[in-house]
Design goal:
Layout: H1 21-27, H2 39-49, H3 58-64, H4 69-72, H5 89-114, H6 118-123, H7 125-146, E1 149-150, E2 171-172, H8 174-192, H9 199-208, H10 216-233, H11 241-252, E3 268-270, H12 284-289, H13 300-308, H14 314-317, E4 318-319, H15 337-345, E5 351-352, E6 365-368, H16 370-383, H17 387-410, H18 428-436, H19 448-463, H20 468-478, H21 504-509, H22 511-514
Keywords: Lipoprotein
InterPro entries: SusD-like_2, TPR-like_helical_dom_sf
Protein name: SusD/RagB family nutrient-binding outer membrane lipoprotein
């Protein structure tokens, strides 16, 4: 049985990103050989460990997202059956284990680094800073779905010399983890401005870093963009409001010191260059499109908004049902199961465009992108009374979102798709017309509440199934856009939950520490940042 106190994968000595998974296994058949790892190669092990939960993989989309986040945001439609608001235990556990596999790799990296003399630590510091940014990104994601989790003491079985009892990790509070990471990310962002690498370690960093290819400026953008995302997430928390506004102002007012992702060329994502390596999106097809009801059927609210406002992304993101005469129709969450089933069987319902999404084996592993950053900026400027800057950021984000999906479409290698043709890219003219439309036009919104709804709706549209964690987090935090759900009166969980619960294995094997947070471990206790 897996449990986080003993989760410990052998250190992956990754020479280049073109290595096959079998080669990693052959190099490390025995976890006891972890001492043979190095800082440089262990860093790649951190990135590699959860790659299938960054790239759109089969297990993540099929066992987790189709049954929880994506229907909870109505990014996809689901049949109205009893129990539809209870997250599947397998999917929840898979996310848990993937994260702690990665964290175990990170703890081993820290252990190896700590064993080096000071001069060698100085040479290799960039690996530690970059790894921390990556781990904190995925830690925020975990906190945002589970709340309190084991973090500061987790994954340290090897560090503790194999002492199992000493390695059972306490649960840290969600707010405490946020505060710790925000503190450390600010330090990292500052240190990255002064770090220098000699030629040898610059080359090594480029080789081992399959995310940002050794680009220190990209890691700066990643660190500060992550800070911006976290600070905005806590912007309504009374104890963090001042910090949020102060540090966001500092970041946005000092681009040279604290750069963030500003253009799609700067997006933080795992790009796929060769689908015959382990860095590919081959699993996206089975994960998203293998089960029509629960994977890629379009939700009515999203389709209706895109239809009404002539969204230029509509034909890029979706394709009409086979018998829908070219019309985009989404599944109604308030319809009966019988009506929904009849509509699906009649071939009326739209699905996610297979050329752009599921069958596109070059689909990147999306982490942070420019449209997301500008929508966060728009929200910040709106709440601080800078309407002009909010408008600019909002409109820029929409243009960047269209550009983002145009680019992904251009990467596609999808073949053998019946009943559909490859869509054409959206044009600047279609974007301009969209921005001028009544349901999107900033000037048509006369109150801050209406403008916030515009921003939240664009987040929802942009994230869809591509950034499900961001989508669900912002929907819970803002309660916008307003979505309607059928009440499941046959189940104790009558509406979508506000968080996940801790997996059963963790409860069983870490019972003493779990007891401290048991009272809040349910589907109805909001996260600390969910205050509206």
């Amino acid at each position: 049985m897996k449990k986080i106190a003993i989760l410990f994968i052998a250190g992956l000595l990754l020479g280049t990103v073109s290595c096959k998974e079998s080669e990693f296994a052959e190099a490390y058949p025995d976890p006891a050989k972890i001492a043979e790892s190095t800082v440089e190669k262990q860093f790649t092990g951190v990135l590699y460990a959860n790659r299938e939960y960054v790239l759109p993989g089969y297990t993540h989309y099929f066992t987790t997202l189709r049954l929880s986040m994506n229907p909870y945001t109505q990014a996809i439609g689901r049949l109205n059956q009893s129990g539809l608001y209870v997250p599947g235990s397998a999917g929840v556990e898979n996310v848990w284990f993937s994260y702690y596999d990665m964290l175990a790799q990170y703890r081993e990296l820290q252990k190896i680094y700590a064993s080096k003399p000071a001069d060698q630590q100085a040479d290799r510091k960039i690996f530690m800073l970059a790894a921390a940014i990556y781990v904190y990104d995925h830690t925020q994601r975990m906190v945002d779905v589970y709340g309190a989790i084991p973090f500061t003491e987790a994954g340290k079985l090897s560090t503790n010399g194999g002492e199992y009892a000493a390695s059972l990790a306490k649960f840290d509070t969600a707010e405490g983890i946020y505060a710790f990471m925000l503190d450390d990310l600010k330090k990292i962002a500052t240190e990255l401005n002064t770090i220098t690498l000699n030629a040898g370690y610059q080359k090594s960093f480029q080789t081992q870093d399959f995310l940002n290819k050794g680009d220190i400026t990209a890691w700066k953008r990643y660190a500060n963009s992550l800070r911006l995302r976290m600070l905005n997430r806590v912007s309504d928390v009374e104890s963090m409001k001042t910090r949020s506004n102060t540090e966001i102002a500092e970041i946005l007012g000092n681009a040279a010191t604290f750069p963030i992702v500003e253009t799609n060329a700067q997006n933080i994502q795992i790009n796929v260059f060769d689908i015959n390596t382990d860095i590919n999106s081959k699993g996206f097809q089975g994960g998203l499109a293998s089960d029509g009801w629960y994977g890629n059927t379009a939700g009515k609210a999203m389709i209706d908004h895109m239809n009404t406002n002539k969204d230029p992304r509509l034909p890029i993101l979706f394709e009409p049902g086979l018998n829908a005469a070219g019309k985009f129709i989404g599944i109604d969450p308030l319809a009966s199961e019988a009506v929904q089933t009849a509509q699906y069987n009649a071939g009326q319902l739209a699905i996610y465009n297979r050329y752009t999404t599921s069958h596109n084996q070059f689909f990147p592993g999306v982490i942070i992108n420019a449209a997301q950053m500008n929508l966060i900026k728009a929200e910040y400027y709106l709440r601080t009374g800078n309407d002009a800057s909010a408008k600019t950021a909002y409109e820029t984000a929409i243009s960047q979102s269209v550009e983002f999906y145009n680019k992904i479409l251009s990467l596609t290698n999808a073949t053998g798709i019946t009943g559909s043709t490859i869509p054409t890219a959206a044009t600047p003219a279609s974007v301009a017309a969209y921005l001028a439309g009544d349901g999107v036009n900033w000037a048509k919104a006369t109150t801050n509440a209406q403008k916030l709804n515009l921003i939240a709706t664009q987040k929802w549209l942009h994230y869809n199934v591509v950034q499900p964690y961001e989508n669900w987090a912002d929907l819970r935090r803002l309660d916008l856009p307003v979505l309607s759900f059928q009440v499941d009166n046959a189940n104790n969980q009558t509406l979508p939950p506000v968080k996940w619960t801790i997996p059963g294995n963790e409860i069983t094997y870490n019972a003493a520490n779990y007891a401290a947070i048991k009272a809040t471990d349910n589907l109805k206790t909001k996260l600390f940042w969910d205050v509206k």
